[in-house]
């Protein structure tokens, strides 16, 4: 699982940072890419990466500000243009469907795939299948805004074949039964319980996306024990009051969340244009005083989940 | 008057060309910039030019395909963000208002300037003031599409002061009266007609914008005696049938228009991604066989009106 940052700036595009979009690449796990927000020119950014638009299976919108959604219609049209035919799910606050559907209707766009809209009226579990679940939680921005917590399901450990050697089990269905955790009776009468021969669960990962928001306790729920928290960090702690007034976070408040919630790593994004170039390292240093494993991300940065600086 | 090309590609953005947008810079004439189409990431392109978004006073949309309008909401929001307060006019086919207003409403955008929508139901004069007029004409694309003809008003010539010397006219209001074309009686009884002392009209310019279309006679009306025709040229003459099927033009058909209409110059844009890099010179050579003063334009090219290759 990897995070690739397609837009890491706040509000308006600048030469250094595009507006918001974060890709969660789950190629090994699901052969899919999920996007969190789609600011204008996200499809242009994707052109410079290895991401294939048709692999984008789910899009999670945090809130309906233009710098988080104006790239959506163009991306959807290009996904069709580039041969995407698999269905796409779009999660987000009420209104996202009207925006997308109006854009597609007015432009006479006919997509060759189906879009399913999941408009959120409240937080909670929004997706759940065999391998992953996703929870949304209401943040505290000027307009309705959701954070997301992506949770990989526990993955059953491997069958401990070495420990089974002494039983001289013939090749065949018995291994499968043991792996499924069943009780098996061998020819010599020995009973083996599969549960005793399965290794520990493989570590499953949690990724949390906290978009535009003031601090609110809901952030903690979304962030508990996360492998990576991607947290907006529009301002430094010097501008704490400004951050509060504009319903945004500081690098320090994001780091406090990561520490309190026992996260493994923190990636700061949604950086104000006032911190140009190396200026953004102020935010990183500030956060690292509270939570060491922190990075300020730049457009096109790729991070493994979890990561170590 | 200058043309600056912000997006010269067809359909979808590529690494080499962004989707459609053309700026007509009228800084000397009106201290304004007019845009023709606003594909996604036009505001990103503008970041790399000297164009100030608040100087954009009029936007002419040729048709409602996404590659010609998806940059509009973001540009409008950024224009406000960068201190634009002067009103803005948006011309285009019916539906452009719904698209823009839905985008602004859903995102809760409050602009600090007024937008006046001029939705066209037919061709004809769409704008007229002291110095310029603009005509729209219906082209032949898959959906309603307009070409535009921008006409500078004749500019009165200079007062021929040298020829007035012999009359020993005292400094003062008489010069102004003569310049205004009035009849003036001097102290010695001589009558002078201002009309006789005004030089020839200064050349006034015509710029024609022909967007996505098959050939149709309306193109000729829009293009007659133009200083510059900006003409879409998605395909080469080899792909004539493809161009026809997709309601597009070839380089050759654009050049034939320029020749027949006695234009001074032809700029080819909306280039298909199949003609990458130097490949687009095929289109230029092909057109030049018919009409010499032709260039295939690239993103960020700037041309004087008129231009000479
Ligand atoms: Zn934002
Ligand atoms: Zn087009």
UniProtKB/TrEMBL annotation, chains A, B:
Obligatory cofactor(s) = Zn(2+)
What EC number(s) would the UniProt record show?
3.1.26.11
Q: Keyword annotations for this protein?
A: Endonuclease, Hydrolase, Metal-binding, Nuclease, tRNA processing, Zinc
Alphabetically, the GO molecular function entries are: 3'-tRNA processing endoribonuclease activity; identical protein binding; zinc ion binding
The first-level EC class reads hydrolase
- Give the matching InterPro entries: RibonucZ/Hydroxyglut_hydro, RNase_Z/BN
Binding-site list for Zn(2+) 1: 63, 65, 141, 212
Annotated active site residues, numbered on this chain, are 67
The function of this protein is: Zinc phosphodiesterase, which displays some tRNA 3'-processing endonuclease activity. Probably involved in tRNA maturation, by removing a 3'-trailer from precursor tRNA.
Provide the protein name: Ribonuclease Z
What organism is this sequence from? Answer: Companilactobacillus nodensis DSM 19682 = JCM 14932 = NBRC 107160
């Amino acid at each position: 699982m990897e995070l690739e940052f397609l837009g890491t700036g706040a509000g308006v595009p600048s030469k250094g940072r595009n507006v918001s979009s974060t890709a969660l690449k789950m190629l090994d796990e699901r052969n899919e890419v999920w996007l969190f927000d789609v600011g204008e020119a996200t499809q242009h950014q994707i052109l410079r990466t290895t991401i294939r638009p048709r692999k984008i299976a789910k899009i999670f919108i945090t809130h309906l500000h233009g710098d988080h959604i104006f790239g959506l219609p163009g991306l959807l049209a290009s996904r069709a243009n580039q041969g995407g035919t698999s269905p796409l799910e779009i999660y987000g606050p009420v209104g996202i469907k009207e925006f997308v559907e109006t854009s597609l209707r007015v432009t006479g766009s006919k997509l060759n795939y189906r879009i399913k809209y999941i408009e959120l009226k409240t937080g909670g579990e929004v997706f759940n299948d065999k391998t992953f679940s996703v929870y949304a939680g209401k943040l505290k921005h000027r307009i309705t805004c959701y954070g997301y917590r992506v949770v990989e399901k526990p993955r059953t450990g491997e069958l401990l074949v070495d420990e089974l050697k002494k039983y001289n089990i013939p090749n065949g269905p018995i291994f499968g039964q043991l792996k499924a955790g069943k009780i098996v009776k061998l020819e010599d009468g020995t009973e083996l319980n599969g549960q005793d021969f399965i290794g520990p669960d493989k570590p499953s990962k949690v990724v949390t996306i906290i978009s535009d928001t003031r601090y609110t306790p809901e952030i903690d729920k979304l962030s508990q024990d996360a492998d990576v928290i991607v947290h907006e960090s529009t301002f430094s702690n010097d501008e704490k009051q400004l951050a509060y007034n504009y319903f945004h976070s500081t690098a320090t408040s994001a780091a406090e969340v990561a520490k309190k919630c026992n996260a493994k790593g923190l990636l700061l994004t949604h950086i104000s244009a006032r911190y140009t170039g190396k200026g953004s390292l102020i935010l990183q240093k500030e956060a690292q005083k509270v939570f060491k494993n922190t990075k300020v991300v730049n457009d096109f940065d790729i991070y493994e989940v979890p990561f170590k600086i």
